[in-house]
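hey can u run this one w/ alpha-D-glucopyranose bound, need the structure tokens asap thx
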Amino acid sequence: MIKKWWHDKVAYQIYPKSFYDSNGDGIGDIPGIISKLDYLRDLGVDILWLSPCYRSPLADQGYDISDYYSIDPRFGTMADMERLIAEAKKRDMYILMDLVVNHCSDEHEWFRKACEDPDGKYGRFFYLRDKKEGELPTNWRSYFGGTVWEDLPGTDKQYLHVFHKKQPDLNWENPELREEVYKNINWWLDKGLGGFRIDAIINIKKALPFRSYPTDRDDGLCSIDAMLEEASGIGAFLSELRDRTFKKYDAFSVGEVFHEKPGELPDFIGDNGYFSSMFDFNEAIFGHSEKGWYDASPITPDDYKNCCFAAQEKTGKIGFLSNIIENHDGPRGVSRYIPESDCCDRSKKMLAALNFMLRGIPFIYQGQELGMENLPFSSIDEVDDISSRDEYQVALHAGLSEAEALRAVAAHSRDNARTPMQWSGQANAGFTDGTPWLKVNPNYTSINAAAQIGDEDSVYAFYKKLIALRKNPVYRETVVYGTLEPIWRERHNLMAYYRKGERTLLVVGNFQKDTQEITLPAPYKKVLLNNDKNIVEHDETITLQGYQVLILEM
Ligand code: GLC
Ligand code: CA
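ok here u go:
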């Protein structure tokens, strides 16, 4: 494996709208991020990924871009963005922007021009089909519900949108479109960005010619997945993208890749892969049902372990996964992976260590380092996210009561992760002086940064120690490049693995509230991290306390 500058880094995802509001309008912004750079530097993170802050109608919170060359005024100005890049650099940090190029916004100039002249240059930037009365070009269901086809205003055509109707898909088959994309990426890289997180990228390759697939719900539609499974040849687009942009700059790129095909992993993240890394979503998607969120099955600690290990085994030394506990597209990890009655500082730290020590690049989502939890929703009116609103309707349609539908949505809603960052115990969690755009989690009075910084026992302090361990010159090679070998794999509610490199580390977590005994294969040399004050041991046998996690040097 060729060594790269990003391998030993720790990344942090910022959701700008909810991070820190500098001017009291209730919306987080870039000057707000700049004012928190020292907080992030202190935590120890190196790479900051910003969810989109380009000009956008915010129909899908910025994942609908109307101008790739400007910053939305709600988030700041281009000068603010340049200052952020420069201020980050002073602190040896890198900024990643979000690259959203499967689709743009229906308010983008290209789309407007396509409406004016569907047969002209910009019509070919999109997927347009002639409108037929009572018949759709295909029966695909959009990710956010309903058909993927929408009338192209002022014309006799329809356009494709695999996400929201305000997110028309861009036609990657058209070389002119691809040129525009590369030009924009390079324009940003020239500004000194460290790279990009690449949104929804698997969708850029469609199976052509378009056709319908067997319906899978009583809405008469079928999941996009059927078409994506049939699509082949995405590699030609992705290698061109890499060669024309990232590669020339040695930029870091991390793909949001769902369902790559078996055997394709080396193409994606091997040496000279399309991307530097891609997210491991194995745990996040576990239990998802074709029918909708309401039908999802819960994930147990053993499932969690198996998902993590399966991803690790698949990847081996091919490349680097990016490991996450959560992101802006789902519930908080501590609320998803830990039973509600056991969700406490100790179990949060256990989850942190088990995930953070996996082989790959750790990504922390804002507030994860504080142990932020899901929002207790009391009504669907509190939900802003378009996908949650759709899933609520899907649940009602399936016969669930309003209360049951709300419960299903509450467990999965993307708004759980999007509530304002909890900076302090002051009004609005110290996020804004105004009215926050989304409800603040009422638990901010006990879970907040101000209370945790300086408290040696806080979740925040524990994350800081994990980051410091990854950077410690004595252990760095092992934590970054060491192999991962599961141990005691069949043990119930126990997740344990070795990291073996220059040194041998053993990571073991007791994923339950009852104690559990382990007998070490050999005596350990040193305790590198423990979320408890003590270790209860006699000879080589350790009695792990409920949710205790240990990182031992063997
Ligand atoms: C990705 C983003 C998500 C967005 C979607 C459409 O999955 O993470 O937030 O809604 O793409 O851009
Ligand atoms: Ca603001």
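The pocket of calcium ion (ligand 2) is lined by residues 21-23, 25, 27, 29 (CB under 6 Å). anyway lmk if its weird
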